[in-house]
User: What shape does this take?
Amino acid sequence: MRKQLAAGLGTAALAAGMLLALPGTAAHASTIRPSAVNRCAQYDTWQTLNGGNYLADPNYGGRGTRVIVWPWTGGTEQHWCMERATEGGWYLHPGHKTNLCMDVPGSNYSDGVGLVIWDCNGRANQRFDITPVHIGVSTHVITPTANGSVRVTAGNGGDGNVVTISTDANQNTDYGQFWG
Assistant: This one.
């Protein structure tokens, strides 16, 4: 699966054994359609580089729920469906409900804005670029496709921290990068 994700992202194969992930096939191109139909062929998890916490849709939340980081539970609230956006980038759907998307609320890319789960609408604030950073592990920086000068970060990476946008262009810290 890691080779398939890497191929879909246009990168070399990712190192095996870094994350728990469900088996799948390469993400496919499609447009977002609000429905409960599973359009994703690949699921993955995203872990903070040194904190051990994972991106999560807490308590299987719905519309308006803040994306957080949380210790591994093994539940689908920590699995993310990777769907290739025909417009560029990736849609990240909570694994338990693929008609929802990770979203930058109001397209506000200011420092500290928390990401939420929202109804998929195909807008640019729901698309993300996933860029490998080669520092000896399978590390990635997640940035909003509409604003590559900011990145998705887990704050200090502690349990329950809200996942936010960071405007610190020099942020190369563990919590601004994810294993994936």
